[in-house]
Amino acid sequence: MENNPSAPDELRGLLRELQRHQLELEMQNRELQEAQQALEESRNRYMELYDFAPMACVSLDAKACIQDLNLTGAGLLGQDRTHLQGMPFTPFVDPADLGRFFAHVRQCIDGETVSTELRLRIARRRIEVRLHSAPLEDGRLPGRMCRTAIIDITELRQMQVRLSMSERLAVVGTLAAGIAHEVNNPLAFLMGSLSLASHALRAPAPATVDTELLALTRHHTGATQALEALSHAQAGAERIQDIVKDLGTFARPSTSQGHGVDVEQVLELALKMATVEIRHRAHVVRDYEQVPEVVADSVRLGQVFLNLLVNAAQAIPEGMASRHEIRVRLRNSDEGVLVQFQDTGEGIAPDVLEHIFDPFFTTKRLGQGLGLGLAISHSLVAQMNGSISVESTPGRGSTFTVQLPASSAPREA
Predict the structure, then answer these.
(1) What segment(s) does the record annotate as region Disordered (predicted)?
(2) How many CB atoms lie within 10 A of CB 25?
């Protein structure tokens, strides 16, 4: 070094180079710290959004055990988050829906994004929820997980039930005048028969008639007339009872689950209820095949059929019943059972047809309908795992088709 005059310059150069590298390392270190801080802040913001999201979020493993959940999810399940982690989710599922829940988790773990509606039981309270699940790869845990968003739809379902009830009562209200007429006829017949029976039993005896002969005659005449009149009165009373029973069937709400239902029986009940609306507009043509029972709720299915029959009748002008028809078809199909309502009414314009199942959409005058009948019918059929569609030609009528799943149980004769 002492013999090399350029050595100090090389040392100074090396020192400057080292200082520059040190500065670069400090800058990189500062950038890394800032990036780490930003990442931490971002993670904290994500965790805040995740924890306080308006919907419950839970991560399930292949055994449906809770691996992670947000605070909203812990609040929904009513327990502390640390206590819930590692627990199976199944104690919170309604026993009747366990099969669907396990199938949902299995599909998600297999890589599908799935959505299912089921019921949960939490602290003796039953709520209806919709599960939206997507598969999640988490490096911290072996295997794939199921990240699930839980949406409480209990209030939505209650609102749908209230709307359904309102529409059902609106349809019954439409038929009220005709039903009153239907009740008045057998009621008048009942009152007349009772009056005849009373008169036959209480008629005074002429003074010149022998008492024993009168008793014998009254036994063979008056009593017979009274019994006949009372029999007619009973028939009238039974008719009134049937009308009231039919009305009550469609007016009361239903909470029963889907089971095997005889479609033809429900159709006939709906046709009986709609007779007053149809009578002066069209004649009914029944075109039935022998079909299996369907998985449905009889009251809700009856409401759907009644809505479609009343709509078909109202599409036909009054006073030309001999020229118009409403054809009701009952057919077997690959998917189950097909029910069709075909009318020869005004038909539906193409721009109206695309909105026909929209809530509150109606072409009727103000005060004649809420525009909920077809929307609720569409919703009810969907809840029964069926479908409803419409085809129409303006001026030539419309055809509404209801597709329903057949019951696996054999139909009783």
Answers:
(1) 392-413
(2) 10
Q: Is residue 181 part of a domain?
A: no
Provide the edge-to-edge strand list for the sheet that holds 66-69.
66-69, 56-60, 144-152, 125-137, 114-122
Give the CATH number of the domain where residue 64 resides.
Answer: 3.30.450.20
| C-beta atoms surrounding 136 within 10 Å | 17
What is the number of domains present in the chain? 2
Q: Pick the last residue of a domain from 98, 125, 158.
A: 158
Which segments of 52-174 does DSSP mark as H helices, in order?
71-77, 81-84, 98-109, 154-174
- Asked if 390 and 356 touch (Cβ cutoff 8 Å), the reply is yes
For residue 207, how far is the Cα from the chain centroid?
73
Token representation of residue 130: 């919709």
Residue indicated by tokens 């709307």: 163
Note the pLDDT tens digit of each residue in 72-103.
888 888 888 888 888 999 999 998 899 989 99
Q: Report the pLDDT value the prediction gives residue 105, as an integer from 0 to 100.
A: 92
Tell whether 189 is covered by a domain: no
Indicate whether 260 and 404 sit together in one domain. Answer: yes
Which residue type, as a one-letter code, is found at position 19? Q
In a domain, 85, yes or no: yes
Q: Could you give the CA distance from residue 124 to residue 23 in angstroms, rounded to a whole number?
A: 65
Confidence of residue 326 (pLDDT cuts 50, 70, 90): very high
What burial letters (b/e) apply to 312-344, b meaning 16+ CB within 10 Å? Answer: bbbbbeeeeeeebbbbbbbeeeeebbbbbbbbb
Q: Among 215-219, 223-227, 234-238, 380-384, which stretch is predicted with the lowest mean pLDDT?
A: 215-219
Residue 166 lies in a domain: no
Q: Which residue has the higher pLDDT, 258 or 324?
A: 324
Same domain for 269 and 406: yes
Please name the residues in contact with 247: beta carbons below 8 A apart, sequence gap of 6 or more: 172, 179, 273
Range of the domain at 277: 255-412
